[in-house]
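Long-time lurker, first post.

We've been arguing in lab meeting about whether magnesium ion would sit comfortably in this protein at all. Half the group thinks yes, half thinks no, and nobody has a model to point at. So I'm putting the question to the forum: if I give you the sequence and the SMILES, can you give me back a predicted structure of the complex? Inputs are below. Any interpretation is welcome too.
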Amino acid sequence: MSDPVLAVAGVGKTFPGVRALADVSLEVAAGEVVALVGENGAGKSTLLKILCGDYDLDEGRVRLAGREVSHASPFEARQAGFRLVRQEPEIVPDISAAENVFVGEYPRRRLGRVDHRAMRALMLGQLERYGFAGMVDPDALGRTLSPAQMHLVEIVRALKPGMKVVAFDEPTSSLTSDEVARLFALIRQLRAEGLGIIYVSHRLKEVLAISDRVVVLKDGRVTGSLRTRETDEDEIVRLMVGRELVHDFRRDETTRPEVVLEVEGLWSRWHRDVSFRIRAGEILGFGGLVGAGRTELAKVIFGEFPHSRGTIRILGRERTIRSPADAIASDIGFAPENRKAEGLILVRSVIENASMAVYRRLSRWGLLRDRMMLERVGPVIRALDVKTPSLAQEVSKLSGGNQQKVVLSRWLAAGPRLLILDEPTRAVDVGAKAEIYRLIDRLARDGMAIMLISSEMPELLALSDRIVVMANGRLSPVIEKKDATEEMIVSHALGKGLAA
Ligand SMILES: Nc1ncnc2c1ncn2[C@@H]1O[C@H](COP(=O)(O)OP(=O)(O)OP(=O)(O)O)[C@@H](O)[C@H]1O
Ligand SMILES: [Mg+2]
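Top reply:
Settle the argument with this. Predicted structure of the protein with magnesium ion, as tokens:
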């Protein structure tokens, strides 16, 4: 083999209380896609942040295209040709998509004026060239972009002349299957152009589809380097988790007669005449394509978005819900999909974030409250296996998947009567996923009503007692668990109803 374009040798990194990487070595050849997999907190993002110059390494060496870049600054890493598509896109809300793409390197006219027209044209050219034509409006403000569009902006921003190695950190967690297909086409194109690619993902099927080699990290160490053609999901999971996992999560029906949520004739900007009920102990699954209006429905019920007509009843009583505070007072909890923007206060500790919803219900006396908080929240955080040196750790310092677990733990600990979960296992590793399924099952068993929005078909089918599918702001008839199949859900999602 020719010299690798990227060579990482014996890299170690320690944060206060956390050994994030220990003696990590890996190589990427030109024209090779190397997948990097591992549980939440295994060290994947940390390695990429070292490569792009965000963090300095404690031990080891990094060479890129023959150049020593072990202690490179972000600028030097970029100059050397390393590009990172981040797990959490960094989007400035008040500037346009095009300005986001060219932050720090705006094309200018004479006298230094920013050339907006050139910028727009450059971005359109990039989108076209990489197969994303028409998917993001260059003039749209950052804050109006969907999570998928934010990811596209992040991708286009990374791909600029001079790149030699491009790393994608969990790029598909907010993309639809069509967008994933386009991204894969792009990665194959980059590979054919002779770039080295690092691909980080929890979706092992995607990993097997796109990579040439799989490197497994566990607790900051490399536990395997496998040729993709010669391995399979089971082997990878074993190396990641160190044990076999139960693949099929099946739950028994736990629905009770009492109706917790009843939505009747609801209309809004996004919805047309939506009606459904969720009973105590029932998990009602919401299928549909990204953009069909499921997240918006969750936000209408939680009081974040308005509705123009229709009634919402909780336990038989009609409620006026105009804000999340109203919703919480009506015993509704909501774990949103977009955790960074909506779910967490990043500069606060794990325990504070996890307790936010319990707080209200507990005693007013400080000390007692703190103790009760620990008693309620501590076990949930442990059950979810949140990887953190302590409960006082700032949430921003947790790995992406562990942040997701903190968002969930908040509501799991608070125990509302109705819990809305929007993509609850997005970016969560396989082990934690099983843990989250068990917790959701337990909550339903205890009588909580659960509205589950999920784009992962196996998850929807495994957890739901009943399923409805949203297409174009309307709901399909209720599908009973025993009748539900992937095919049926997809055909409803495409607005085709039941195939005759
Ligand atoms: N800035 C930081 N300060 C302190 N600890 C950190 C920091 N960044 C990461 N860590 C810790 O280092 C470990 C590795 O985190 P990292 O983000 O690399 O995991 P990951 O493999 O990317 O996980 P995920 O799949 O959840 O994204 C974790 O225990 C994390 O809490
Ligand atoms: Mg990560």
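For your lab meeting: Residues 259-493 form a domain with the Rossmann fold fold (CATH 3.40.50.300). Residues 300 and 458 are 26 Å apart (CA to CA). Whichever side wins, do check it experimentally.
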